[in-house]
Amino acid sequence: MKEHIKTYSLVIITLCVFVITIIDVVNLIEKKNMLHSQDTLAGLPGSVKHSASTEPNTEPDVDTLATTIQFSETQFDFGTIQQGDVVRHGFEFMNTGTVPLIIQSAKASCGCTVPSYPKEPIAPGAKGVVQVQFTTAGKQGLQNKNITVSSNANPPVSVLNINANVLPK
Prior knowledge:
With 169 residues, the chain is α+β, with helices and mostly antiparallel strands. The protein folds into two domains: 2-60; 69-167, Immunoglobulin-like (Sandwich). The protein is 24% helix and 37% strand.
């Protein structure tokens, strides 16, 4: 009986060594394939070059590339307007980064304010407009509304502001 236990133990140990060897070989092959694919991609635009050099890498990492957005103004005052008026203003912006700008959303702080924005990517150096419509029905006095614009820019959130003094009818 003891001989059977010894035999089974040796078989199990041999199988474990075999499995560990297979795993090491698979990992080695994956590393080799990954290095080969990086060498193949090295000539493509936007790819990151890998090197065993001790010199610092001065090329930007693809994962850290972000664009920037520059609004010509972030605040607009409609002045004094009448209750019931519907007023509009366009907040012009420029993509001042090096990759396309994508605006994901524009949300107003109140249902009386409706923003609209370009849904297509804005090329580097190109301009766009976030259009804001403010409906004064039911409003009176000083009004201050915010529009939060979310994008792939750094920083990812821009806040626009509109003000108005609404006189009753």
